[in-house]
Amino acid sequence: MVDLGLILHQGAYFRDLWNILDFIVVSGALVAFAFSGGSKGKDISTIKSLRVLRVLRPLKTIKRLPKLKAVFDCVVNSLKNVLNILIVYMLFMFIFAVVAVQLFKGKFFYCTDESKEFQRDCRGEYLVYEKNEVKAQKREWKKWAFHYDNVLWALLTLFTVSTGEGWPDVLRHSVDATYEDQGPRPGFRMEMSIFYVVYFVVFPFFFVNIFVALIIITFQEQGDKMMEEYSLEKNERACIDFAISAKPLTRHMPQNKQSFQYRMWQFVVSPPFEYTIMALIALNTIVLMMKFHGYSNTYEQVLKTFNIVFTSLFSLECILKIMAFGALNYFRDAWNVFDFVTVLGSITDIVVTEFWVSAKYGGLNVIPLQSIGGSVLSISVCH
Description:
Elements: H1 17-34, H2 42-48, H3 60-64, H4 66-104, E1 109-111, E2 125-130, E3 133-138, E4 141-143, H5 151-163, H6 167-176, H7 193-226, H8 234-245, H9 260-268, H10 271-288, H11 297-325, H12 327-330, H13 334-361, H14 369-373, H15 377-382
Antiparallel strand pairs: 1-4, 2-3
């Protein structure tokens, strides 16, 4: 303060927020230290609580690290623009709360005896079997901890749902809800799950991404301000950065254009061939999704046949590419290695499932390795 002055002129001590933070921390520590004697009383305890301000001391390191200070300034500057988004957030939250009250008001009651659906029947005692003991407990008519009986409770419940903690229980209670002042019935209104799907899309996904985008935009704006002193524009800097970081893509091509390998290379790199492989991958993914509990033996055999057909086609793709690129050039590409390992795993699955496992364990299914990597092959095709 002696060197910079107090506050009146430009560059004074109290015109810097970091200096103000230092002053608050030091002042709080001095006041707490001055009353740290043997005095007792409620007021003295309150003054000693100022020692908590010492936890702010690590923030002083931000000022001395330029990169960390830039991040902190970005967060602070983005908070200035958060207000408008926060207003929209609360508006949408209020709308969902009102809708939730209309849908679930008075429908989150239940009886401790799950066999009783109405309050008039939730009386007396019922038997509870715990381990090897039988106990008699009193029936009670209760309300779930989170409910939608009014807008305030609806806001609290929706906020809890948006955190991702405990929301499956709230979803189950909503789906089981029947009528006002009546107990639940399992799966009574499954369509109520749509409400939570829409809510999750709007809040945990949409608004969270907006806040992240706001911070990113603030970073970019600060970067542009730092680069204003240079003569290059934003697009020119982007072009230079791209040129510096760009790496050439290498792709093998046979030198002899009259050879069989060159014609095979033309075939495997042609767009029709790649589109055909993508279509096969899409169909294979659909087949992998067609399994369900309780299917018949005929249905299982059809799926196995499809699996063998797709594995054969993908194996043929690997063989054609090895013939076109050569074994050495083929395995230089990580995506080709991934394709080869996936196909090899699928062949192993078919051999083990159809021959070794069926003969030894009577038809025990092995998890298809193709289901792990088969659908991911589309990434390598696009690549």
